[in-house]
Structures are given as structure tokens and as C-alpha cells.
Amino acid sequence: MRTRGGGPCSMIALLLVAAPVSADGPKVPTANSRLPNIVILVADDLGWSDVGYHNSEMRTPTIDRLAADGVELDMHYVQPQCTPTRVALLTGRYPSRFGRHCTQASNERALPEGTPTIASLLKHAGYRSAIVGKWHLGSLPEWGPNGYGFDFSYGSLAGAVGMYDHRYRLTRPRFTRTWHRNHEYVDDEGHATDLVAREAIRQIENAGDTPLFLYVPFHAVHVPLVEPRPWIQRNEHIVSEDRRLFAAAVTHLDDAIGRIVDALDRTETRASTLIIFTSDNGGLHHHRGNVYPPPDPALSDFSSNAPLRGQKGRVYEGGMRVPAFAHWPGRLEPACRTAPVHVVDWLPTIIGRTGVRTDRNLMLDGHDIWAVLTGENASPAPRTLYWVWGVNRQRVALRHGDWKIVRDEKEEEFELFRLDEDPYETTDLAQSEPEKLATLKHLFEQEMKRDAL
Q1: Please, which residues bridge with residue 399 across strands?
Q2: Sign of dihedral through CA atoms 362, 365, 369, 371?
Q3: How are beta strands 37-43 and 212-217 bridged, if at all?
Q4: Whole-Å CA distances, 114 to 106, 320, 375, 445
Q5: Measured between alpha carbons, how far is 51 from 60 in angstroms, rounded to an integer?
Q6: Which positions ≥6 away from 434 have C-beta within 8 Å?
Q7: Who contacts 21 (Cβ-Cβ below 8 Å, separation ≥6)?
Q8: Phi-psi bin for 136: left (phi > 0), alpha (psi -120 to 50), beta?
Q9: Of the candidates 106, 112, 94, which has an alpha carbon nearest to the alpha carbon of residue 135?
Q10: Helix axes 241-266, 192-205, angle to 10 degrees
Q11: Is 276 helix (H, G, I), strand (E, B) or coil?
């Protein structure tokens, strides 16, 4: 089995992100070019070693091809759990800026009414916006995506659901019924992965000449895992029954992505479409089962972040460094970038390509990383990234340049790692590098002052 992680994905110079940009001065597309479609594909709980281009046992031909033909992001960070990553993606801000309720999975309303999102900002440029899949930023209709700039929404308002049942946890009756179309509950038949793909394809086919922002946060490959026999048969080379079931869900997800890409080809819009792919957090190692509508089997060692340390919900690399790429034929040449980037970067990068203008101070944490994607900026410069998980700041981390501090439990002291030499976080340098530790702790305190916690 081939597994890659930690080091550069190709022999290229380290590229750095551009400075943060205001939405007041984006790079506007040329007069003779149409506004690009934006398609963001988000896998749920897909670990570092759960894609074929990181691990040859996995069957993900579509994802592998898109990564190879696009810009693979070898150092792409998210938050360590679902709700926080979705906040960061849609707002360009760290979730802790909105309050402690945004720093871990929650069914409560995440964002204040009127919060700018990618969807609401793109309206100013003439886009139609659709979300197809998992919202999880407020699990009641009155808190749904149509109130945050989306013209159309379909899928679940709450988090993970039974793949055929389409209900959330049965122990949370306020949020159990959750499958909806434009905030109206519906009862559709079929596997959630297929229903999401079908609706995403419909949005592409019906877009016409209007530029489309299509946000597709899949439920796959989050538990509960229920997969038809054909997907399991394609992964019979995997010995572990639990890992085989998970791999079947991954292959099913890959096929759904392939069908969405085929729809872009059929409508002859692929050349004018920027596709962004990421997971919302690292993979989960164990699941106790019987949490979601049955069948919901217990699973052990089914996902993998190897060789990275940690898993979903943790602030080591395995919890928040995930497979990711950007793909845009004719605009982005195939490449692999090793610069640290973060999911908060996609909002400023997207508005920088679409001519969005606003007088509002967006208070972005993200950077416009277009120069990273194209390779135009090859000058190394340090960047600070910041994480808070948990309503009581149970787990926190900060990366500045090649150095990272981690406090993975509230009662523990900060650990210090040098990621360019120790990408798997095996050696704590807190005692031997006290000055570096003090510098990063000061940066952490400065970031903390900007939080709403």
C-alpha cells in the first residue's frame, strides 16, 4: 500500500499565500469572459489516507483524476469538526469569531442574521446560489440556508442522517426530521449520496446562462454507513470488513462526483467552472454505533489519516489537514502546492475572481490564494493559522510558518512542533525551544482577542 503524507507532494518551491484582500478591490474577469461557475464539493469525515492519490488501496478514480489535472493542495487545513468548517468556508472567518457555539458540532443557529456568506456576496455579481446536501449551521427551517444568500436548498438541515432513512438522531426529536427542499420537509426515496448528486446535476442542467454557485456538502462518508452490494464488491481487496464498508462509501461518493462532473461536460460549462474539493475534517477512527437511524453498525479502524497524527475532533494534523484540490481547465495548470492554506481562504479567493464589491468590512481571516493556485507567488513568507475547538476551548492550536503549538486537552500544557522537519508531530520541542514557544503563545493570545468567546 502506498501512503503519502507530511512532505512535499512534488519537487517544487514552497509557495506562500498572498496578503489578505478586501472585497472592495477584487480582480475582475476580463470583459470577454463569462463569470465562472463555482462548484464546491465537501466530503464529510474523509481522512488523509482515504483517497486513491494518497493511498492505492482506495478506489477514487474521479477524485484522483481531478487532483492530477488540477492544483493539489498538500497542506490544506480545515477545522477539526463539521459545523466549524462550514462556518469558516462560507464566511471566510474562523468560527470562534462568532462565539463558542460555532466551535463544535451544533444544531443551534450558527450565524447571526445578515452575516455575509459566499452565497450572499455572489448575489451582487449576478449569481444564482444553491446548496445541495448537509447544512448543519442551524437545524430548523427558520435557520436554514435560504436565509443566508442561497436561492435554492435541498438535503438535510441537521448533520448526519440515515442514508436511506434521511432522519437525524432519533434521540433529538426537535431536529430528527430534517430532509427538506427550500426549508419544506420532503420524503424522498433513495440513498443520500445519490439524491444529493441527482439534485446537484439538476441545478447544473437548469442553470442556463446565469452563473452558478453550487455548494455540495455531501453526507458521505460520515456514519452511518449503508452501501449497496456493487460498491462493496469494488472494494473486496480490503481485508477488514469495517474498512471495506467505508471504502465502498468512498467509492460511491467518488462516482457521485463523477456524475456531477459529467453534467458540467454535457452542458459545456466545465471550462468555465472552478471546482473546489475538500473534506470537512479528518477521518474518525472508531464509531460506537446505534447513534443514527438503523442500520448504524459499530465500526473500528475504518477511516485513516495515516501517517498524520490524530483524528476528527483533535487539533493534531490528522484532525484538520485534509485532501483538497482546485480544478479549472485552461485557468489552472496541473500542479501541487505545499503552501499552508485554510478553508477560510476560499471566500476571498472566489470573490476575487468574480468582481464582487461591497462597502462592508468583512473582517476576513482568509487570504486570496489565487497566486498560490497559479504559482505566481513563489516568495516564502510566514503565515499564522489558528484553531479553537470546543465551547470551553478544550482543544486549541496555532501554526506560524513551519512552527505549530498544540494544546489537545484543556488541562495540558502547549506542545511545540516544527512541521517541516516533523510533519507527524512526534517530537515536542516546548522545553528545548522556549523562545519559539513564547512567540507562538503570544500570537495565540493576539488571535484570541478577536474571538467572540
Answers
A1: 385, 404
A2: positive
A3: parallel
A4: 20, 28, 35, 29
A5: 6
A6: none
A7: 348, 352, 367, 368
A8: left
A9: 106
A10: 10
A11: strand
- Domains recognised in the chain with CATH numbers: 37-374 (3.40.720.10), 384-448 (3.30.1120.10)
181-215: pLDDT as tens digits: 999 999 999 999 999 999 999 999 999 999 999 99
The arithmetic mean of pLDDT across residues 251-276, rounded, is: 98
Per the listing, cell 500570537 goes with 443
pTM given for the model: 0.94
39 has which bridge partners?
214, 275
Helix or strand holding residue 249 (H, E): helix 241-266
Cα angle 82-87-60, degrees, rounded to a multiple of 5: 45
What is d(CA 230, CA 214) in angstroms, rounded to the nearest whole number?
A: 28
* Torsion angles phi and psi, residue 373, rounded to 5: -60, -40
Residue type, 71: V
Between the CA of residue 349 and those of 216, 218, 369, what are the distances in Å? 18, 22, 6
Sheet holding 403-407, edge to edge: 384-389, 395-400, 403-407, 415-418
- Give catalytic status of residue 82 as yes or no: yes
**pLDDT attached to residue 357:** 83
Q: Report helix, strand or coil for 41.
A: strand
The band of 1, judged by pLDDT with boundaries at 50, 70 and 90, is very low
Report the share of the chain in percent with pLDDT over 70. Answer: 92
Among residues 192, 191, 186, which one has the least CA distance to residue 134? Answer: 192
Catalytic residue among 9, 54, 76, 82: 82
Structural contact between residues 321 and 4, judged by C-beta atoms closer than 8 angstroms:
no
Instruction: Kindly name the residue from 54, 76, 136, 287 that is annotated as catalytic.
Output: 136
Packing angle of the helix pair 346-354, 82-91 (nearest 10 deg)? 30
* pLDDT average, residue stretch 258-263: 98
As to burial, measured by CB atoms within 10 angstroms (0-12 exposed, 13-18 middle, 19+ buried), residue 208 is exposed
Within 10 A of 413 (CB to CB), how many other CB atoms are there?
12
Q: What pLDDT, on the 0 to 100 scale, is given for residue 438?
A: 98
Whether 136 is catalytic: yes
pLDDT digits (tens, 9 = 90+) for 55-113: 999 999 999 999 999 999 999 999 999 999 999 999 999 999 999 999 999 999 999 99
Tell me the backbone φ, ψ of residue 327, rounded to 5 degrees.
-135, 125
Whether 18 contacts 367, CB under 8 Å: yes
Residue 404, amino acid: K
Residues 6+ apart with CB under 8 A from 85: 42, 78, 79, 280, 281, 343
